[in-house]
Amino acid sequence: MPNPQVVGSSPAVPAIQIDQIDTVRGILALLVTVYTKPDCVRCRQTFRALDAQGTEYRAVDVSKDADGYAAVEALGYLELPVVVTPTEHWSGFRRERLKSLKADA
């Protein structure tokens, strides 16, 4: 049986085999967090866009979650939603950035 192709490696991060990439993408998708509050129009737009493209995410209501509120405050944002991914974060409804999170992108 041939050895699977390996992508990247470092002492801190184990190598990922090519056949594991879809699993890794799924795990990264679960790392998308949307900080929200009730009656937030842009938050609802963000949820609809993520749902429509099949991107999984975790919603945190900052009006009920003190740690969530502190996270948004620490990032320096004054507007919701705040979207946090493994590589970036932003506030507001940003359609072009949401598209970059598409599950099969």
UniProtKB/TrEMBL annotation:
Superkingdom to which the source organism belongs: Bacteria
Any Pfam family hit: Glutaredoxin
InterPro entries listed in its UniProt record: Glutaredoxin, Thioredoxin-like_sf
Domain annotation Glutaredoxin: ranges: 32-90
UniProt-listed SUPFAM superfamilies: Thioredoxin-like
Protein name, entry field: NrdH-redoxin
